C-alpha cells in the first residue's frame, strides 16, 4: 500500500469473470490482515500476484524480445560476437522479464535496446549492461541470459 509505504501479503478471495482487454485489468478482491484498521475504504494499492512459482527459470528482459504475432525472436551473440537472430518460446512474464522455455541457454548473450541498429551476421564489440531488478515469480533468483549492448559499430 503506497500510502502506508509498506507491503502486505494477502490471498485472492474473489475476481470478476471478465478481463478488460483495453486496460488488461480485472476487478479482484484480496483478503489481507487489517486488525489494526490501517486500511480504510477507498484506499488504493498496487498488487503483485505470484500466479505460480518456478525455480531456476531462464529469464530475459522484455526489451530484448521482438514479437510478431505468436512468434518471438531475440538477437543473440555467438562465441565470435556475431549476431544471430533466434526464435524463442516464452513462458510466464512480469512487467520487465519473460521466461525463456526454449531457444536460449543460460549465459547466452542477447542484445538489448534498439534492434534497428544491428543486423544478423554483423560482428560487434559487446559490453555487459546492468539488468533491471525483477519481481519474477520464483522462489530463487532466476537464471538468466546476460544482457549485451553495443555502440552500433561493426568490427
Descriptors:
two-stranded antiparallel sheet; single chain
Task: Write a brief caption for the model.
The chain has 155 residues and is mostly beta strands.
Write the layout of secondary structure elements.
Blueprint: E1 10-15, E2 28-32, E3 58-61, E4 66-68, E5 71-77, E6 83-93, E7 97-102, E8 109-111, E9 127-128, E10 143-144, E11 146-149
Parallel strand pairs: 3-10, 8-11
Antiparallel strand pairs: 1-2, 3-7, 4-5, 5-6, 5-8, 6-7, 9-11
What does this 3D model show about the protein?
With 155 residues, the chain is mostly beta strands. 0% of the residues lie in helices and 34% in strands. It has no helices and eleven strands. The protein has strands at 10-15, 28-32, 58-61, 66-68, 71-77, 83-93, 97-102, 109-111, 127-128, 143-144, 146-149. The strands form two sheets. Strands 3, 4, 5, 6, 7, 8, 9, 10 and 11 form a nine-stranded mixed beta sheet that branches. A two-stranded antiparallel sheet has the order 1-2. Residues 139-144 and 150-155 have low confidence and may be disordered.
The overall pLDDT, averaged over residues, is 81
Low-confidence stretches: 139-144, 150-155
Shape: elongated
Pattern of helices and strands: EEEEEEEEEEE
DSSP helical segment count? 0
Give the strand tally.
11
Taken as a percent bin, the fraction of beta residues is: 25-35%
Determine the structural class based on helices, strands and strand pairing. mainly beta
Amino acid at each position: 500500500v503506497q500510502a502506508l509505504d509498506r507491503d502486505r501479503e494477502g490471498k485472492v478471495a474473489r475476481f470478476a469473470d471478465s478481463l478488460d482487454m483495453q486496460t488488461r485489468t480485472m476487478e479482484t478482491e484480496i483478503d489481507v490482515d487489517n486488525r489494526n484498521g490501517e486500511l480504510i475504504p477507498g484506499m488504493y494499492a498496487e498488487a503483485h500476484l505470484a500466479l505460480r512459482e518456478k525455480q531456476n527459470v531462464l529469464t530475459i528482459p522484455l526489451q530484448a524480445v521482438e514479437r510478431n504475432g505468436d512468434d518471438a525472436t531475440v538477437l543473440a551473440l555467438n562465441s565470435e560476437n556475431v549476431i544471430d537472430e533466434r526464435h524463442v518460446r516464452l513462458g510466464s512474464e512480469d512487467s520487465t522479464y519473460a521466461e525463456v522455455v526454449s531457444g536460449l541457454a543460460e549465459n547466452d548473450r542477447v542484445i538489448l535496446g534498439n534492434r534497428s541498429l544491428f543486423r544478423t551476421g554483423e560482428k560487434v564489440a559487446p559490453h555487459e549492461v546492468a539488468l533491471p531488478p525483477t519481481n519474477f515469480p520464483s522462489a530463487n533468483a532466476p537464471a538468466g541470459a546476460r544482457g549485451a549492448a553495443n555502440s552500433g559499430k561493426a568490427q
